[in-house]
Specification:
The chain has about 375 residues and is α/β, with parallel strands linked by helices. It has eleven helices and ten strands. The strands form two sheets. The protein has a seven-stranded mixed β-sheet. A three-stranded mixed β-sheet has the order 1-5-4. Helix 8 links the parallel strand 9 and strand 10. About 10% of the residues have low confidence.
């Protein structure tokens, strides 16, 4: 595993291409150290190093280590999601979305949910082999496998590692149903696997698109594909007969909620069959990371944003109750939901994913297996 970065909080402008402003220690660490980088040359190790104040050599670069997990299928019993099993090829995500609800999971590894989450990644190179073995177990019963529920399976490192592609091939060989959520146009690379699966009723894809504004997207999701490329991916997938939805996640009050109707219209024009949305969630360390990000990029409306968030969470910044954590409550949350429903009805978009088939599942033979006499 990579060594955790220096657990100091750097109160300064964010690094180019990264989402988090700081790298605070995780909640399980015994100590929390904080250093304020001011404007005094003697106190600032980055002073004068480059036009933006940061020495290029000191910028955190992405490191990828091997995840030694011996299981690959994660199980859940949440009534808020339509699946009970999922696969995450990577831990951490280079996309750097500041609001990512997976950030707190990095604390379990001794890393910071801040910059470490974006720069200290763990890959699972044995994922396909582990999945093959799991699906061959006598007691296994197929149900939709979700890919991309925690971190993005098509984040930049996938272009080289190709772990997600190997997983897709295993699921295709077994005739196993699959749903994918991603912010990356790289998903189109695997159309050669996904299109035949779609023809058998085995796959659906959701592209997460939170804004049509390229500049806003670069602030919210610094290393994800541009909104235009994601819409192009929607069109490319639909053109190959692959069921594709758009997921507007998250909707952030006073940041991107003004784009709801435009997002729905653009998604329909690109060929999406349906659309869903999730209201901003701020559990655990995310609330602090989000506040730092908000005050850095939108200081003029930070208090307005937090006021609206509290209006959707019963006066708190976050409530984790089943049925509410994704949608929120109160008049403002209801208004957002109503706007989506009206816009989707006008555009002819569905709210739910199409059902996938489980009766195609069959364990393929392997070299050396004894042939059946029947």
């Amino acid at each position: 595993m990579p060594e955790p970065a220096d657990p100091e909080v750097l109160t300064r402008s964010p690094l180019k291409g990264r989402g988090a402003v700081t790298n605070a220690t995780g909640r399980f660490e015994r100590e929390r150290r904080e250093r304020v980088i001011g404007g005094w040359p003697g106190d600032n190790p980055f002073h004068g190093a480059s036009p933006d104040g940061w020495d290029v050599e000191k910028r955190p670069k992405t490191e990828v280590a091997v995840d030694a997990s011996r299981t690959i299928i994660a199980r859940n019993q949440s009534p808020d999601v339509p699946f009970d099993r999922s696969i995450n090829p990577y831990r951490g995500c280079e996309h750097g979305c500041i609001y990512c609800f997976a950030r707190p999971t990095h604390a379990y590894l001794g890393y910071s949910p801040g910059l470490d989450f974006e720069t200290k990644l763990l890959a699972k190179p044995d994922a396909a082999a582990l999945l093959d073995a799991a699906l061959r177990k006598p007691g296994y019963r197929p149900a939709v496998m979700a890919l991309g529920t925690n971190t993005d399976p098509y984040q930049p490192v996938e272009k080289e590692r190709r772990i997600t592609r190997e997983i897709l091939q295993v699921l295709s060989d077994f005739g196993h149903p699959l749903s994918i959520v991603t912010k990356s146009a790289l998903v189109t690379r695997d159309i050669d696997i996904l299109a035949p699966m779609a023809a058998r009723g085995l796959v659906s894809v959701a592209l997460s698109i939170t804004t049509l504004d390229r500049d806003l997207a670069r602030i919210m999701e610094p290393r994800a594909a541009t909104p235009a490329r994601r819409l192009d991916a929607v069109h490319a997938l639909r053109s190959e007969g692959i069921p594709v939805h758009v997921l507007a996640a998250p909707i952030i009050p006073a940041i991107n909620d003004g784009e709801i109707e435009a997002l729905v219209e653009a998604s329909a024009e690109a060929g999406a069959r349906g659309m869903g949305h999730i209201l901003l969630r701020l559990p655990l360390e995310i609330k602090d990371l989000f506040r730092e990000w908000l005050e850095e990029h939108f200081p003029d409306r930070a208090e307005r944003v937090y006021s609206l968030i509290r209006q959707t969470r019963g006066g708190a910044l976050y409530r984790a109750e089943w049925g509410e954590r994704m949608r929120g409550s109160g008049p403002y949350a209801a208004l957002i939901h109503r706007r989506f429903e009206v816009a989707k009805k006008r555009a002819g978009l569905a709210s739910k994913f199409p059902p996938l088939r489980t009766d195609r599942f069959e364990v393929p033979s392997r070299a050396g297996d004894q042939l059946s006499l029947l």
